[in-house]
TrEMBL record:
It comes from Geopseudomonas aromaticivorans. It comes from the Bacteria. This is YkgJ family cysteine cluster protein. InterPro entries: Puta_zinc/iron-chelating_dom.
Length: 98
């Protein structure tokens, strides 16, 4: 089987077609992007992080659509996290057994 051909046949991973696996990661707020205060928490070391719900999901995630409710004001780390790249695929594998 041609591995390159198999890769081309796979559907592209995008935020719109994802199951929001990255929204379970801890997100440190290292720049001001306008994240609303209600979504900001303080970690054990005093740093600002995205608030997470009791089940570990980001508090800014719309649970019905699995899309970010503050997309235009999302943290820098979320902006730099690229759908379909190594980190994305690693998180998907962990949660979706891909």
């Amino acid at each position: 089987m041609n591995i390159a051909a198999t890769k081309l046949d796979e559907p592209k991973k995008t935020c719109a077609t994802c199951q929001a696996c990255c929204c379970r990661l801890e997100v440190m707020l290292i720049t001001d992007t306008g994240v609303p205060e209600r979504y900001i928490d303080i970690d054990a070391w005093g740093g600002e992080v995205m608030a997470r719900l009791d089940d570990g999901w980001c508090a800014a995630l719309d649970r019905e659509t699995l899309l970010c409710t503050i997309y235009e004001n999302r943290p820098l780390i979320c902006r730099e996290f690229e759908a379909g790249e190594y980190e994305c695929l690693s998180e998907r594998k962990k949660y979706l057994n891909e």
